[in-house]
Structure formats: structure tokens, C-alpha cells
Write a structure and sequence with these properties.
By secondary structure, the protein is an alpha/beta fold. It has one domain: SGNH hydrolase (Rossmann fold, 3-Layer(aba) Sandwich), CATH 3.40.50.1110. 45% of the residues lie in helices and 13% in strands. It contains nine helices and nine strands. Helix 1 links the parallel strand 1 and strand 2. The radius of gyration is 21 Å and the shape is globular. It comes from Flavobacterium ginsenosidimutans.
Length: 319
């Protein structure tokens, strides 16, 4: 007897394995999944420009990367004793302008290289709500706590989002026409926008994204939509699966969504390696009551051998 509904998920035709190179971009949920990739020692890069929530800002960055258009002094500004760029997250902000520009331009060149080499790219959209800088008449990725009066809040239309996603795909494919796209909508609700407004925002993302997938699906290499939002809202509809803020998925939910992602988008041949890596990771976290005991020394020697065996088979893995 089933006491919950389960979301059907199609298996990827080109799943991720330990030879794959994955780039993850987007909202904070992209970071949750990237932590899992890191834990299991896949070749993964995440949010080189920090967390980005809206599709237009993601498009703008990929356009800049594809053209290798470096950041200049006109692209940064000083506020609250730090230099910022409206195109990236505040995690990259710096008290020194030149250091910020060097960080941003290093991210441009490295992301260019990563896209050229990547086998898979995962893009997670978070919201359709954007803030437009009134003076520059430009959509920003982050307001950096600049006074709100300098921005106009807008809801992106389905048409604008659809065009933005198409442009993002185009910019990436100019660098790597064989890359596999995986899209998802973040299950995190943006309640600060309002409950009704959050639903409206997500609905615009869904409509635009699925219209793009319907139109362009034959050009992609894999089945490319993962229903993380649907899993959270339906299979995990109980608040015991949320953090204390009742908005972000907790570790149980993240683990469950990762499990479903693994089953659908990771090669079955990789499962045995993932199990080995998991055992090593758990052993590395083990704390002995008696570090000087013969038993613990044998445990460490055995662990070192396991690590050596995995690292010899997969040179990119380093514990």
C-alpha cells in the first residue's frame, strides 16, 4: 500500500560517471547538489560567480564568458567599504578593487575553459522576480544591500525568460556543442516576495523552461529536466523535511533528492565507486577513543590502502 505519490523520473541517455566533468550553475539548491558531487569525488565545478537566482543574470554571465568579455572598472562600484559587481554574488566582493577585478576575470577565463571541457551542465533557476538598477536600467544578480530606492522590482514575463534560456543555451553551445544540459527549478520558496507572488514566479519559470525544452529537445544530448521542485512539493510535502526556516530543504530532503538524481542521471557503473568513496569518507570522519591502540593503527593502515586503491584508479580523486 502506497502512502505517498512518487514523481516518475526518466533515466538519462548520457548519464554522469567518474570520467564526466560537471558544471553546476544557479540558485542555492545547485550548491546543495554540488556538495554531493564533491562528497562522492566527481569532477565538479560550482557557481564560479556565486549563487545566481534569476535566468537573465545567468544568461548575462554565460554571454560574457562565451565572448571572454572581461570585467573592467565600469563594471564594479564601491559601497559599505567594499567593491562589488551587480553581475555576481556578494561572496566575491572585496575591499580592494583590483583584487575583485582579478577574481572576476579569473572566473571568466576558468569558466570558459570549464565549459569547453564539460560533459554536463546543470542549471537551476530560482525566481522570476528581478531587481532593475534604475540609474543603469539593468537587471542585477545581487543588490549588495544598496538602498532599495535605487531599484525597481519586476516579474519577468514568460516570453523574456524563454528567450533568456534560449540565449543561455546558445552561448554555451557555441563553446561546446556536445555538452549535456540538465535543468531544474529550485524547490526553495522565495517567501519574501509573498506567497502568491512566489507561486507566480515559479509558474513563469516552469512555463518558459518547458516551452524551451519542448521546442529544442531534439538538439540536446540527454533528457534534460530533473523535477527537484516537484519532489519537494509532493513526495516531501511534510515540514519535517525542511530546515528551521520552513523554506529550505533539510539534509534528509537533500539526501533523498540526491538519491533520485543518482538513480536517473548517474551511470550505474559508478555506483560501486560511489560506495567505496562513501566508506572512505565516513572512515575519515571517524574519531577514535584510543588513537594509540593497535586496533586504531590497523584501521588507519587499512584506510590508507583503500584511499590509495581509489586514487590509483581515478587520478582526479584526492582525499
Amino acid at each position: 500500500m502506497q502512502f505517498r505519490t512518487q514523481i516518475p523520473i526518466s533515466k538519462s541517455n548520457n548519464p554522469i560517471d567518474y570520467n564526466s566533468k560537471v558544471l553546476s550553475i544557479g540558485s542555492c539548491f545547485a550548491e546543495n547538489m554540488a556538495e554531493k558531487f564533491d562528497y562522492f569525488k566527481f569532477q565538479n565545478e560550482t557557481n564560479p560567480f556565486g549563487i545566481i537566482f534569476n535566468p537573465v543574470s545567468i544568461e548575462k554571465l554565460f554571454d560574457r564568458v562565451s565572448k571572454q568579455e572581461l570585467f573592467g572598472e565600469k563594471d564594479v562600484f564601491f559601497h559599505n567599504e567594499r567593491w562589488h559587481s551587480y553581475e555576481v554574488h556578494s561572496d566575491l566582493s572585496n575591499s580592494d578593487r583590483q583584487e575583485l577585478l582579478e577574481t572576476l576575470n579569473k572566473a571568466i577565463t576558468e569558466t570558459y575553459k570549464q565549459i569547453k571541457e564539460a560533459t554536463h551542465i546543470i542549471i537551476t533557476f530560482g525566481t522570476s522576480w528581478i531587481y532593475r538598477n534604475i540609474e543603469k536600467d539593468e537587471i542585477v544578480a545581487n543588490c549588495h544591500k544598496v538602498p532599495q530606492k535605487q531599484f525597481a522590482k519586476e516579474l519577468l514575463s514568460v516570453e523574456v525568460i524563454q528567450k533568456s534560456i534560449q540565449n543561455t543555451i546558445g552561448a554555451i553551445q557555441t563553446l561546446n556543442p556536445n555538452i549535456n544540459f540538465i535543468f531544474t527549478i529550485s524547490p526553495v520558496r522565495h517567501i519574501k516576495d509573498g506567497f502568491v507572488e512566489n507561486q507566480l514566479s515559479k509558474s513563469h519559470l516552469f512555463t518558459a523552461l518547458h516551452q524551451v525544452l519542448k521546442t529544442y529537445n531534439s538538439k540536446f544530448i540527454t533528457h534534460n529536466y530533473f523535477p527537484s521542485y516537484e519532489i519537494m512539493m509532493d513526495e516531501l510535502r511534510d515540514y519535517r523535511f525542511y530546515n528551521e526556516d520552513m523554506l529550505h530543504p533539510n539534509q534528509i530532503a537533500i539526501d533523498y533528492i540526491w538519491k533520485l538524481f543518482s538513480e536517473s542521471h548517474i551511470s550505474e557503473n559508478s555506483f560501486s565507486i560511489m560506495k567505496e568513496v562513501d566508506e572512505i569518507q565516513k572512515s575519515l570522519r571517524h574519531r577514535s577513543f584510543n588513537p594509540e591502540s593497535d586496533q586504531h593503527k590497523k584501521f588507519l593502515a587499512n584506510l590508507q590502502q583503500k584511499m590509495k586503491n581509489v586514487e590509483e584508479k581515478w587520478p582526479h580523486i584526492v582525499f
